[in-house]
Amino acid sequence: MSEAVAQLNETLLTMLQSETFVLLNTVDAESGGPTSTAISWIYAVSPSIVRLAVDHRSRLVNNMKVNPLVTITVFGEGTVHAINGHALVRQDPLPDVPFKMCCFDVEIEAVRNALFYGAQLESAQNMLRYTMHVRLRSWTDRCLLPCKKPSDDLTRLFLTIRMYFSSIQSSLFAGTDAF
User: What pTM did the predictor assign?
Assistant: First the structure.
């Protein structure tokens, strides 16, 4: 791991101001153990503050209220970054959203390259896209191809699932603002 800096560099700032997914690591409020959850509602407000929204049904809300220490793991720039900080409730609940959300600001204390020396990460988004495609193809091969004569209902189901995954993929990789 490299030496820590106290704020996001320009590349990370730009990356966290567009659609991306990260791992949010918290301390479990009940067990005291580490937790890791993939989230996509994240936005870099400035080089020193990252804002995120979490559904109230998630254990993450209570975890961060009880113990505000968090690490955000970001895959990009050919490496893995660990962003350490304190999560503070900004707004609870968020107004004008269809379901109850809690908004947190993470005050960044350290940003580190978390990849071991000499390693380089290939495109995480391309890997996710490839993985989703392979899993969908594998599912269709196992479930649909053995059918000698698929029914109309099965064909419609397959097309619906394929369109659903395509829409998820499109929304994951579209270049629109996160907030």
Answer: 0.66
